[in-house]
Amino acid sequence: METGEGAAGPGGVAGLICASFNQDTTSLAVGTKDGYKLFSVTAVDGLDLIHESTETPEVYIVERLFSSSLVVVVSLSMPRRMNVYHFKKGTEICNYSYSNNILAVRLNRQRLIVCLEESIYIHNIKDMKLLKTLLNTPPNPTGLCALSTNHSNSYLAYPGSSTIGEIIVYDANNLSTVTMIPAHDSPLAAVTFNSSGTKLGSASERGTVIRVFTIPEGQKLFEFRRGMKRYVNISSLSFSADAQFLCASSNTETVHIFKLEQHSPSCEEESPTWSAYVGKMFSAASNYLPAQVSDMMNQDRAFATVRLNIFGQKNVCALATIQKLPRLLVASSDGHLYIYNLDPQDGGECMLVKKHRLLGSDQDWAESEESESRVAPPACQSYAATVAIPTAVPSSTALTGYSEDGGTKKGELIPEHEFAAGPVCLDDENEFPPASAAPEREKSPGHAHRIAFTLFSSNDRIHGFQISLPEAKRAP
């Protein structure tokens, strides 16, 4: 099941292998034993099937570029080969083969990232040319990495160590290292950027603490405690579009949603409450306690939670605004998409409002949708207009997939008509206007990598302490 904005892994039940949301959480892609499917998630009651392909079986990575027609697919039958399709035309744009199995693929409007266990390949998405190969990266068997969706802040994050939770932040536009963040004491389990590329969320393999850092500085901004009783495997982290919330899902039945807000002392003074008084007491007491204890006392807890009806299943979560209301989406390896309401003011327990089936034949899927919804799902109107395939024969001057070795093998030729002078334009014109291209920067040869180190206390484990407080009634 895919995690966060991406690491893929074979698994799941009843034919579902992976699932991933696109960069703006308007679409859900699922890989199955028979191929892959693309769904629109812009309505609660209806789950529109945008596209289905059975040409490539056992798809364990499928990534769509925003609401465009570009989709990247990797199959278990050929795990070293990446296929890039224009699904509305029904054509293959190109394909690439790598020196080892592909573990993850990330996309934004400028770059396409391919992550192997010990190397990362950075492609220019306009012409698919290989721009940079990061070789001998620390062992990364799960393909953990994140790419910011903002094309002007095109940052890439990946583990800087296989033994501790270091995060390397790399500028995929300028092809240089930005910083190294000592995020956790234990190895990383999940990383994700917010939509503007200014914040980075992370979790370690212990799964007890989730941290948020500023980008590109790498300063710790927030620290949240998911729990203390047990270690869990956090499989997915995702920011809301406005970066006000961060959700985390794991192999347990609970999804946690944290609110990213700075507590203002002035507000507490204006409206003194018992909880504010207790907060001040904790803050004062933390100055006289060991660092591990004071760090734990200053960690915020979940603002809202979701109790899933499934346990031990892999899933991927995302926060989205659907029909003008904030929602939590959970795509699970049990073959369903769960949609919950989120109260942005009071938080608390989120309510399940819809459950959609992702697997089965067209007839089974339609019958399931009809039985679970009073309102029939609308037709795929926003995707009705497809891109016309040019009838002209491509000229003999064609672009190759890339021009460097870097451990890859050449794929098929890319016809010139697939690319314009500007950025890649594969969107429906009236649905998703293409982004304007950022000016190309001159890259001086031998450009040195700049690495800045930020030091702070990062303790995931708490030992040998106990704090008891009298129960207090909440002020009216």
Specify Rg, calculated over alpha carbons.
23 Å
Number of helices: 4
Fraction of residues in β-strands: 35-45%
> Spans with pLDDT under 50 lasting ≥5 residues?
3-13, 266-271, 291-298, 373-424, 427-476
Total beta strand runs: 29
Task: Quickly give the structural class.
Answer: mainly beta
What is the subunit organization of this protein? single chain
Strands of the largest sheet, in order across it? 21-22-23-24-28
Mean pLDDT across the residues is 76
The percent range for helix content is under 10%
Largest pleated sheet: 5 strands, mixed
Instruction: Give the terminus-to-terminus CA distance.
Output: 45 Å
Verbal overview:
The chain is mainly beta and 476 residues long. Helices cover 8% and strands 36% of the residues. The strands form seven sheets. It has a five-stranded mixed β-sheet, with no helix packed on it. Strands 1-2-3-4 form a four-stranded antiparallel β-sheet, with no helix packed on it. It has a four-stranded antiparallel β-sheet with strand order 5-6-7-8, with no helix packed on it. A hairpin with a 5-residue loop joins β1 (16-21) and β2 (27-32). The longest helix has 12 residues, at 274-285. It is globular and about 50 Å long. The relative contact order is 0.15.
List its salient traits.
476 residues; mainly beta; five-stranded mixed β-sheet; four-stranded antiparallel β-sheet; 8% helix; disordered N terminus; disordered C terminus
